[in-house]
Amino acid sequence: MQKKEKQDLIKQRFYYSTDQIIEKPFNWKQMGRLMGYIKPYSKNLLPLSFLTVILTTIVRLIVPILIGVYTLDKAIVQKDLDLLWVLVGSIFGLYLVSYVANTLRIRWMNMLGQNVIYDLRKHLFTHVQSLSHRFFDSRSAGSILVRIMNDINSLQELFTSGVINLLMDFLLLIGVIVILFTISPPLALAIMIILPVMFFISTSLRKKIRRSWQTVRLKQSMLNSHLNESIQGIRVTQAYTQEKENIEFFDGINTENFSSWQDATQKNAVFRPFVEMTNAIGTAILIWFGASLIANESITIGEFVSFAFYLGMFWEPISRLGQVYNQLLMGMASSERIFEFLDEKPIVSESDDPVVLLDMKGDIAFDKVEFSYDGNRKALKGVSLQIASGQTVALVGHTGSGKTTIANLISRFYDATGGEVKIDGYNIRDLSIGSLRSQISVVLQDTFIFSGTIMENIRFGRPDAADEEVIAAAEAVGADEFIKDLVNGYETEVEERGNVLSVGERQLLSFARAILADPKILILDEATASIDTESEVKIQQALKTLLKGRTAIMIAHRLSTIREADNIIVLDHGNIMEQGNHEELMKQQGIYYELVKAQFRMLDAG
Ligand SMILES: Nc1ncnc2c1ncn2[C@@H]1O[C@H](COP(=O)(O)OP(=O)(O)OP(=O)(O)O)[C@@H](O)[C@H]1O
């Protein structure tokens, strides 16, 4: 295979969707909303920063006049030593004020920016936590991470320097222009000839530079995505000996990243000399035209010197304004993405006057419940069922028949699209979500382990539980044995994806977590699927303890684990087909009977 074809094939395999839109046109409404985050600081940091900005600008505008017009023309030419000393003292004093104001300006501006970023990130994270499952169904963890980190970071510069520098540059520019025209209108007009050149630099060249930096960002985010996936999937990569392809692809984006950096830095390098060149042209005009003005006594030497100082200050804000403009456009794109998340409403929302069920009994009823994830395909088609408090009910059926969906509706991770789900006789929508979920525990097949110790992981659902209670919970489900064998026992550090624990051990840990939380309703979704037959005896024992005194819903493909259930509900394509206990369903010789027979045949063949 040709090298290029191979590269194309590899590229097709690794596809990363990145947020391609990096800049957006300026939008006042969005800017206003963004500025709303500055509001809490409008009584302290904001006015203080403004004050220092105004102070430093005023000092910068006064000093050249003192040096040129007063020191040169008055004190030196007229040999007025007293005035000279006053001037030296004043200039020194002004510089001192400027030094202090500048130090404070940088400190306060940074504090303001950091505070705004802190608030924005906190707001976004808090909001994302409240969003419903549907939001997470349609987005990768990576893309959410990018918004909370990268997009907010890209606003950081805008807030820490951009917005306030904008004011400073604006003030400076207006001040300088007014002074230049006051000192000598013809000289000021002559200098303004360079403005179009300057304008060209700040728009066209800056645009090119901005585009190159955007490419750099894009390449970097691809590199990040690939790195993330490579490390997470390293075991599969090695198992399928795909390391070479992986390295080749990495090499490809790494090279692209390198070239984009090179391109951006080269373009950036052109910018400065360009500014300096226009500066030089400006100075040439100043000397040539200024000298003739001095000769015909239109201006004094002091005025000429002051003019030269102000001219130096003229280019600086112009070139920086272009930079702030770039920051603004990038900030628009980032803030649009941030606001898109913030505007996302939790689909499952608290009722206006929620009923707080403090002591739930655990009666569950479904009345002609319909549900669709995508508004199109129905996952449940009019399901009606009753589960009495303390009963153990098993949900059985082929893959995709709707078992997990029933569990999702009981926890109110989604709302039914038709019919009613009731807990203890209340419509689930009228209950406070907090009181509902705090009395339901869900144990999944893939137990999520948070980074921390085993002790902390078991304690997750009840952070105030004492160590003894945690240990008692672990003992009750038979997890104690393996935990004690670990190097640091209950204090062993574990991490998601870190493989300190086997799948079965993780499962036992999640049982301990559930029993400690002491829920009224327990949902076990394929919780025993990854446990070997030998451990299953132990797990059955653990389950007995776990299920005592609670309403339990067990979802299991392995039918041996649910024989003892009070009621077995057989689902197919979102409909209830059969229900009854094991003996009753076996007698019926329907779907359940066929499923049991099929599993026996598999076991025999195995
Ligand atoms: N988040 C989702 N978004 C869209 N469709 C979904 C989602 N989750 C499940 N579905 C669809 O809803 C239907 C029922 O899924 P459900 O997870 O309830 O099945 P299940 O019986 O639990 O299957 P399994 O035994 O494989 O876990 C399936 O057709 C599935 O493709």
Describe the structure.
The protein has a domain at 28-182: ABC transporter type 1, transmembrane domain (ABC transporter transmembrane region fold, Up-down Bundle), CATH 1.20.1560.10. A six-stranded mixed sheet has the order 6-9-10-3-11-12, with helices on both faces. Strands 2-1-4-5 form a four-stranded antiparallel sheet, covered by helices on one side. The radius of gyration is 35 Å and the shape is elongated. The relative contact order is 0.08. Helix content is 63%, strand content 10%. Helix 3 (45-76) packs antiparallel against helix 11, helix 8 (195-232) runs antiparallel to helix 10 (243-295) and helix 8 (195-232) runs parallel beside helix 11. The chain has 606 residues and is an alpha/beta fold. The longest helix is centred in the middle third of the chain and has 53 residues, at 243-295. It has 20 helices and twelve strands. The protein binds adenosine-5'-triphosphate (ATP). Residues 137, 373-374, 379, 397, 399-405 line the site of adenosine-5'-triphosphate.
List the helices and strands and how they pair.
Layout: H1 3-13, H2 28-35, H3 45-76, H4 81-130, H5 133-137, H6 141-183, H7 185-191, H8 195-232, H9 234-239, H10 243-295, H11 301-342, E1 364-371, E2 380-387, E3 392-397, H12 403-410, E4 418-423, E5 426-427, H13 433-437, E6 440-444, E7 452-453, H14 454-458, H15 467-476, H16 480-485, E8 493-494, H17 503-517, E9 521-525, H18 533-547, E10 551-555, E11 567-572, E12 575-580, H19 582-588, H20 591-605
Parallel strand pairs: 3-10, 3-11, 6-9, 9-10
Antiparallel strand pairs: 1-2, 1-4, 4-5, 7-8, 11-12
Helix pairs in contact: 3-4, 3-6, 3-11, 4-6, 6-7, 6-11, 8-10, 8-11, 10-11, 15-17, 17-18
Bound molecules: adenosine-5'-triphosphate.
